[in-house]
Amino acid sequence: MRLQGRVALITGTGSGIGRATALRFAAEGARIVGVDIAPSNEETVDAVRAAGGEAIAVRADVAVESDVAAAFGRAEAEYGGIDVAFNNAGIMLDADTDAIATADETIDRTFGVNVKGVLYGCRYAVEAMRRRGGGSIINTASFVASVGAATPQIAYTASKGAVLSLTRELAVVHARENIRVNALSPGPLRTEMLMSFLDTPEKRHRRLVHVPMGRFGEADEMASAALFLASDDSSYMTGANLQVDGGLTAAYVTPE
């Protein structure tokens, strides 16, 4: 019960990491504010409640500031404050390739969700946490912010690099307000988003050959990492990038 009595706002709770984290945080005692644009967000909230947790669902497009402001306002109105903000929502578009072929529309939409969405989440989290006397902000980055790839997704990669820089800056600015800001960088995961992209055995092998552990990660493993960053177990951490990637960013030559 490491989050007993705390309120956690999580974006992207309709699937993947967000859904797994909502269930895990609730099991640890948190009241959940699940934020997503997808109808499946309601299913996640229902699953939290079915497991005995307390949760509300808020429909929002994180790329729209007014939506984010309304989500945080609803959380404070419903539960009296916010202790944890997990800015997790993100997109990876099929039309995102290299710098030559990727259209401005793809870049703008990717940055709107992955960068501005995180910035808006941090903006309103800081305001809410100041009223609360502190809190923990977690931003989902990615291993791609730390390594290059010959199969480019230039807008996605650049957006996740921006998340890391944003996280470090905010951590330093708000360190003496008892507001911690850390990034979580997942490796390649066996989630619907990535598996729909890696839709052949050849594409999956192309990734796994670079992962020392030789497998895709699971959303539940990212939820465990997010729990660490949300709880007092990480009370002396801020501005950090927690890489949970099966050893990928540490690798040069992997085991045969």
Fill in the keyword field for this structure.
256 residues, alpha/beta, Rossmann fold, 7-stranded parallel beta sheet
Q: What kind of assembly state do the chains in view correspond to? A: single chain
Main structural class: alpha/beta
By DSSP (H or I, 4+ residues per run), the number of helices equals: 8
Main sheet attributes: strand count, strand direction, barrel closure: 7 strands, parallel
Strand sequence of the main sheet, in spatial order? 3-2-1-4-5-6-7
What's the architecture in CATH terms? Answer: 3-Layer(aba) Sandwich
**Average pLDDT over all residues:** 95
Strand content: 15-25%
What is the class in the CATH system?
Alpha Beta
Radius of gyration (Å):
17 Å
CATH topology: Rossmann fold
Number of strands: 7
Domains counted in the coordinates: how many?
1
Summarize the structure.
The protein is α/β, with parallel strands linked by helices and 256 residues long. The chain has eight helices and seven strands, in the order βαβαβαβαβαβαααβ.
Give structural notes.
- It is built from eight helices and seven strands, in the order E-H-E-H-E-H-E-H-E-H-E-H-H-H-E.
- It is an alpha/beta fold and 256 residues long.
- The protein has a seven-stranded parallel β-sheet with strand order 3-2-1-4-5-6-7, sandwiched between helices.
- Helix 5 (154-174) links the parallel strand 5 (135-140) and strand 6 (179-186).
- Helix 1 (16-27) packs parallel to helix 2 (40-50), helix 1 crosses helix 8 and helix 4 packs parallel to helix 5 (154-174).
